[in-house]
Each structure stands twice: as C-alpha cells, then as structure tokens.
Specification:
α2 crosses α7, α3 packs antiparallel against α4 and α3 packs parallel to α8. The protein has one domain. The chain is elongated. The chain has 9 helices and no strands.
Length: 259
Amino acid sequence: MIDFLLSLPTFSGILISMVLATAVGLMVYGIFYGLIGRHWTDASKGPTEGLFSVVGILVGLMLSLAFTDVVSEMRTIEKAVQREGSAIADLFNGLRQFDDEGTQEIRFELIKYVQAIIEDDWVALAGDQLGQKTGILRKRISRSIVELYPHTEVQKELWSRLLSDLDAVSNYRLIRLDNALAKPPAYVYTVFFGFLVTMACFGAFRPKVPLVALASLYPAFFGLVLYLILALSDPFQGGFGVSPTTFEHLAETLLSESG
C-alpha cells in the first residue's frame, strides 16, 4: 500500500492518503458511537474528554517526532550525495594530475559513470536496487585505476589518493542503497494506533454536523502528515525524494573541463 501511494504523482498520493484516513477515522467514529456512544451518560463524558485530550497530545507529539526524524534523515542523505559528488570530482582531477593524456580514457569513463548514476542508478533506487550499468562502469573504472603504474614519488602519492577517493565513491553508493532500503520509523504504527484511539473517543459524542466536520478535518490532516512522513522515509521515490541535481551539475562541469 505504501509503495502504491508513493508511486503515484505527489498530489494524487496526498489526496488518496487524506481520503483513506478520513474514511477510516469516520468509520471508527461511527462504530464506537454505535457501540458505546448511545449508552454514554453525561457523567462519563468528562473522563472521556480527558482521555481524548491526552491521546490527542501524545499522537501530535509522536507525529512531530516522526516528521522531525525523517526530515533529519533526508538532510543527512542529501549531504552524503554531495560528498559523493565531491569524491568523484576529486577522482577526476586527481587523474588529470597523475597523467593528463594517459588517464583520458578513464576520465571519459568517469563522466559516463556520473551520467549512469542519473539515468540508471536513480531509477533503480526507486525500486530499492542499484543500477547494473552503473555497477559495470564502477568496476571498469576501479580496475583501470588499480592497474595504473606510478613512476615517480608524486605519482605514488596521487595514486594513493585516487584509491582513497575510489573507496569513498563506492561507500557513498552503498549508503544510497542502504537509505533506499530503510523502512519508515517503527513508531509510525504506534502513531496510527493512537489515531484510531482518538477517533474512537469521538464515539462518545452524538454525530452532529459541526462535530462530524471537525472529526473529518482531523483524520484528513493526519493523512497528509502521514503521507509526508512515508514519502520522506523513502528518499529516492515520490515527489519529495532526493533529486540527482548534484550529479547533473557535476556531469556538466566534467564535460566542460574535458572538452
């Protein structure tokens, strides 16, 4: 269900999430009103209102915590993507310093690798995988750099830095995969249960128009926030995902420098 919602256009996903949450919330309200609301006395509505307030506050706090958590994770991923781009740029410049003419073919392969990240890796990450084409290029580049033979002390130092940058590029690529495989925060399910309890507390009150309107706005807002949390927890899928803008700028820069 989550993958289906995130695969839809952003507006459609938000709308469906809000409609589903509202439908579920009103259904719980109706069920509990039918079970207990008709038999509820004025004396027992006081404790219910207190419980309603406490559960509502707890649900709001947990929603806030979950939203803050996924936003923080998103920023961490964006920084990792930027560092990956910097490592590739350092690798490209290091190859030029090592041997401008002798490493020209490897640098062209590196440009193809950046383009493959955009066109192949990013598409595969939406399905929690890494692109095959990008992986083949990475192995080819790794083999070519390892097979470089340094003739001078300067080249030995540069070669050592190239190997470090190569490891960094591979590690950051795996970090992208790890984040693509990450699941929504576990306490989201607890938040959803709290939402159901909150809607059940509405069942103590007779369904009049103003109350039904308020009881509809609350789950609609809950559905909106829940969709945002789910979308941000899957950073390479949906309209709120991390974009490959860093690599697009990097590909343009490397092409201009190699031309």
